[in-house]
């Protein structure tokens, strides 16, 4: 019996094919990066959480002063995510001191984290064909929801960037090593966004449904991360995972989340209609065609959507994981359409450009089609402009917020820098009923005020209006006086964090 060696021609063809696939994937990643990277420098803020729940705590970890919200006073936030962000915050402050770098570099890191979704989409598609891989990765690279959320330091996009590759690992020729890694990713996603626990559980059960022994390496990988998260909590002087219990207590027993609004169960369906418009019908058709290629993704997406629909307080960002999975499934379905079109000779050369063009054009159109998206792109821009002016003013020695919510602003360091920051708010028990008199008596402590334009009559005569910009649902203006600031006992109780304690905010 003679031994035969492998055909070198076949080996060369496989190597050439692998190189082509890697080049295609690299090109799609560069495309994704090209549309996301500039957004890291665009200072819009989707929600105050990305500043006050993550970047401000990371900033305080580095020994700086920052705004402490009620969530941190009540201990309902974990330290793991701010600790992860502390490195990019420190690097950014070293590159560009003064708050701007500490804001931008973490957003750049979030952009790179989002690329895991594009890579995962490629490999989900590659299970079917190279065509499906290209279309899935292209859709994940350009779809406006995924692009818009990519630079924001929020728990939802960061958790999704961990769950999607974990789903890939546990469904694509899974091995014990892959289950360990997937378990670590899922545990990290849980620590970042524990509200994704039902979706994570559905994914784990679905992946282990036929071979329950795979739960062991999955749990083992997760326990390693949970232990690390516990160590981080202890390092910060808190009981491990006490934040989880406190969060459930505040939001379920004390209904704190309801204070921010309660909407009906169909809210997310309405959101899809508002943001996706009639294109949503096309996407549903594509999902219906493509779900068979990755049925577990559809189950996870629906489980996450249903769970969040049962919660009274709803925000579109909460279901970002479902949005990502729906887009991947729709992309796989649209690739099936390409296969069908290519079976017709007249369509053969145009099928791929046509479907890819539809994805790109729909994404570009929907990115600014609705009033909601236009508002999202501009949210926080006016506040950032006013903050940059204040932060760059060498004459600023103290700043007061007069009847202007702090959460509309981009964080303490970017707003006032080393200057003291005061908050004069009508709901404050120490200010209620005499806010106008209070600003007069405390004004020696600050020479800049941020207030609504119609508050001009309440302010001391020495303050004149300068720049104004859209902040929240109205304009806000900088009012300035000449001269220095003097310490005064009248202003001391109104340092912003003391005011927030009294407001329980």
From TrEMBL:
Chain segments annotated as transmembrane: 24-42, 104-124, 131-150, 179-206, 218-245, 265-288, 295-312, 318-338, 350-369
GO MF, any single term: transferase activity
UniProt entry keywords in alphabetical sequence: Endoplasmic reticulum, Glycosyltransferase, Membrane, Transferase, Transmembrane, Transmembrane helix
Record has Transmembrane helix as a keyword: yes
Membrane topology qualifier: Multi-pass membrane protein
Tagged with keyword Membrane: yes
Main location, first listed in the record: membrane
Subcellular location: Endomembrane system; Endoplasmic reticulum membrane
Record protein name field: 4-amino-4-deoxy-L-arabinose transferase
Record organism: Bradyrhizobium jicamae
Lineage summary: Bacteria, Pseudomonadati, Pseudomonadota, Alphaproteobacteria, Hyphomicrobiales
